[in-house]
Amino acid sequence: MNPVIENNFKYHAPQPGQPEIYQEIRDKAKELAYLIDEKAPNSREKSLAMTKLEEAVMWANAGIARN
After folding, report:
1. pLDDT < 50 regions, the chain
2. Does 54 fall in a domain?
3. Cα dihedral angle (28, 29, 30, 35), rounded to 10 degrees?
4. Which residues contact 29 (CB under 8 A, 6 or more apart)?
5. d(CA 60, CA 47)
6. Is residue 2 part of a domain?
7. Domain range for residue 60?
8. CA distances for 60 relative to 24, 29, 43, 67, angstroms
9. 33-51, pLDDT tens digit by residue?
């Protein structure tokens, strides 16, 4: 068995305090999303920036959950 695979593909129930951290990360990302939406012209690049921001939030929260 590979412990990294086992950890990455299991459910991680939120520990005390984690939901608040997840929300804080989402709130900051939303603030940046609004800035990007306001300042960047509608384009493929803007769409990619928004997608990558969503990915950053997902990976940050996964990092907290998994570790």
Report:
1. none
2. yes
3. 100
4. 53, 54, 56, 57
5. 20
6. no
7. 41-67
8. 11, 11, 26, 11
9. 999 999 999 999 999 999 9
Q: Rounded to 5 degrees, what angle do the CA atoms 11, 15, 58 make? A: 60
Nearest to 7 by CA among 59, 63, 58, 61: 63
**Structural domain tally of the chain?**
1
DSSP helix/strand/coil, 53: helix
Query: Cα 58 to the chain's mean position, in Å?
Result: 3
- For residue 52, is it within any domain? yes
Burial of residue 24, with CB atoms counted within 10 A of its CB: 0-12 exposed, 13-18 middle, 19 or more buried: exposed
Q: Rounded distance, CA 7 to CA 54, Å? A: 22
- Residue 62 forms part of a structural domain: yes
Which pTM value belongs to this model? 0.90
